[in-house]
From TrEMBL:
One of its GO terms (molecular function) is protein-glutamine N-methyltransferase activity. It comes from the Bacteria. It comes from Candidatus Roizmanbacteria bacterium CG22_combo_CG10-13_8_21_14_all_38_20. Residues 40-189 form the Methyltransferase small domain. It holds the Pfam family MTS. This is Methyltransferase small domain-containing protein.
């Protein structure tokens, strides 16, 4: 993983990557009542604070059709399967999608879930709209060099997050919402990371609300909610 800005501390992410790299074969993992299998090169939700933070703030009221962007193992989509009539999961990693399919089978959710390989909105059909879009994107402004690093590193200019936000408005039903994780790690690229996101959200025809936030010392994690303005 390459950080173009030398002030970005990659040590927490490197520790997390090292923990994942110890697993060379698929292994079992329980997470918030789900029985999961985690493949090598797929992030384990139990290893990350931000995934649990988002999971604990998944308000699925009036959310029949759900999109889980950057779905990884499929865990967030599976957590909302009881309330939703359909869950679509999209990830650029074919290994992650294979993992998500197996987890849907293990948790008796294959009739409600549709996991697809795709780069952002390329994995979504043109006529599809959603009541709830969940996103736990890569949070670091760094260049990934491996498949596993793609789960934590976006790009120096956070282009994935930008493209995701810009595409949300046209994919939401009128009363739809977006729940997205966000970190202040992008302060090495933007003077005011949250202000940058707020401006981008507003330019995309959405309004922003902070649902949850917690300072872990090395990063401040937030769960952001977007709605149509």
């Amino acid at each position: 993983m390459i950080a173009e800005n030398i002030s970005l501390d990659l040590r927490p992410a490197q520790k997390l990557l090292s923990l994942h790299s110890q697993h060379k074969t698929p292994y079992e993992q329980e997470f918030m009542g789900l029985q999961l299998v985690i493949y090598p090169n797929v992030f384990n939700p139990a290893f990350t604070k931000v995934t649990r933070m988002l999971a604990e703030n998944l308000n699925t009221e009036n959310s029949s059709v759900v999109l889980d962007m950057f779905c990884g193992s499929g865990v967030l989509g599976l957590l909302v399967k009881q309330q939703a009539s359909k869950v679509v999961g999209v990830d650029a990693s074919s290994e992650a999608i294979a993992c998500a399919h197996e987890n849907a089978t293990r948790n008796l959710a294959t009739s409600k879930t549709d996991f697809r390989v795709g780069n952002l909105w390329q994995g979504v059909l043109k006529n599809e709209k959603f009541d709830l879009i969940i996103a736990n994107p890569p949070l670091l402004p760094a260049t990934p060099e491996t498949i596993l690093e793609m789960a934590v590193a976006d790009s120096p200019d956070m282009s994935l997050a930008t493209q995701f936000i810009q595409g949300c408005h046209s994919r939401l039903n009128d009363s739809g919402r977006v729940l997205m994780t966000f970190s202040n790690a992008s302060k090495v690229s933007f003077v005011d990371p949250l202000g940058h996101i707020e401006k981008l959200v507003e330019q995309s025809g959405l309004s922003l609300n902070i649902v949850a936030e917690k300072d872990y010392g090395y990063e401040i994690y937030r769960v952001l909610e977007f709605r149509k303005s």
